[in-house]
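During the no-cost extension, the postdoctoral fellow (Dr. R.K.) reprocessed legacy sequence entries with the updated structure-token encoder. One reprocessed record is reproduced below for audit purposes.
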Amino acid sequence: TIADSTRRIQNNLRPDKLDVFGIKAAISEQAYEFEKSTGVPCKANLPDESLSYDPRLNIALFRMVQETLSNVARHAGATAVTIVLDDNEDEVMLTVRDDGVGIAADRLGDTSVHGLRGLRERANYLGGMVKISDAGARGTTVTMTFPKLPVQHR
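Re-encoded structure tokens follow.
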């Protein structure tokens, strides 16, 4: 129905789980779902303490994990994935590392690659940056760094 479609679109734009359970639970669930759907072990290393980020940053982190895991599933041929979320007083760092085939050097800066371009645009929008490191046959590491934004409530 139209109502179901509208609800699905709304949830895709702003996942309810972020508001209800927080970014740590949302990333853990993504890791679990990735492992369940691909059979590739996916470990999430998350801070022990409770996290309170601006909702815009939560959405960006959630979507960037989603996009990065999608790229791993489609292209990496990985046998293991690790997601690390870390922060300090000034910034938030999200790292997704796989042990797959790596990414060709000429693709790293290619702005026509939709997924990589989307990661960079999302990071730039929030004053952050994306670094993609290719370790050849040892995989790829995507590190996304953001300044801590003042928490704004909706």
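The CA atoms of residues 37 and 73 lie 9 Å apart. The domain at 2-147 is CATH 3.30.565.10 (Heat Shock Protein 90). The remaining legacy entries will be reprocessed before the final report is submitted.
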